[in-house]
Amino acid sequence: MARLALVDLFAGCGGLTRGFLDINHDASITHTYDVVASVEADRAAAATYAANFGRDHLFHTKIEEWLPRDIPDADVVVGGPPCQGFSNLGKRDPMDGRNRLWREYARTVEKIQPDYFLIENVAAFYRSHEWGLLQSAVEDGPLRNYELQPHVLNAAEFGVPQVRKRAVVVGRHRDRPPLPSLDAVRSDPTARFPSVGDALAELPEYVPPDRIALPQGVYDFAGDLPGAFKTSDLHITRRLEKISRDRIASIPEGGNRLDIPFHLQAPCWRGHTSGSLDVMGRLRKDRPSVTIRTEFVKPEKGRYLHYRQPRPLTHAEAALLQTFPMDYQWCGAKVSIARQIGNAVPVKLARALGALITKAYD
Questions:
Q1: Cβ distance 15 to 78 under 8 Å?
Q2: Element (H, E) at 37
Q3: Which domain of life does this protein belong to (predicted)?
Q4: CB distance 333 to 52 below 8 Å
Q5: What pLDDT does residue 84 have?
Q6: Residue 331 bears catalytic tag
Q7: Distance separating alpha carbons of residues 187 and 157, to the nearest angstrom
Q8: 287 and 195 in contact (C-beta within 8 Å)?
Q9: Which entry of 136, 174, 347, 357 is 20 to 30 Å from 290 by CA?
Q10: Which pLDDT value is given to residue 270?
Q11: Residues above pLDDT 70, as percent of the chain
């Protein structure tokens, strides 16, 4: 098998890396991946990455501080620059400094000159000023050797039990062939989307209400951090006030805040019978979940109640809905691990994209 050198920028907890490396276990492919460098500034996310993939190729630093002498040659560059400035749930501030981090990504691509590069972001990226600047960089700027193939993808079409629409931009060096059709890696269009019930089948539904703390453990990475914990260790819930328990108990599968009796409703919900209908929403067992975001432990933020149990999703359940395996290792406090899970590229989506790129080399 031929080996392709891979660089993962804004690597986070490693969703893209895991998906691309999963391809290496497929005996039918002719090209596999070696990760030669990954960059991640967040300490806990970098520790999670190191716990799963090692530290030898990991640069725990801001991408703008990644020195040119450390940037290796590579065939493929991937990354998901922070999306909070573009997100529909955020302020969508055009001056948010995180929006401009794609420029550091572009600087790295210009230095490496890979065959292909891939950017993953929220779908709103295509309505941003930054998308226009990226197009300009390709048309007559430092990335003029590349052509862009932009897509809006639903992760559920690639085996992820979650409706998650994302912008995926593939840049192709003009000396390399275009990528095949995405149909080559999509799931069978006649099959139903994978469901919440499918994804959570390995976990017990019941979680004792007092199981709210992470297990004991310390992981040494740029200072001690809680960890490393397997996904299966994260089947923990949160402490709920009585009024929250009463509200949750009144909501049926597929229901939402409108099912809560009037006397239990928050004052801001009363009289509002439209909009925000995912608030205090309960998932359906036989359907994909909504997009898993960083605050999935808070049902007041969206449709994050277990389809049957009187609680929100656990960290383990959210990780499985992001298609991380049960033995994946996580580092950090509960809030940090939740943020890592919500910000990650689903592993099965990453695997499909990695497989698509390898087909261009066949």
A1: no
A2: strand 31-39
A3: Bacteria
A4: no
A5: 55
A6: no
A7: 6
A8: yes
A9: 357
A10: 87
A11: 95
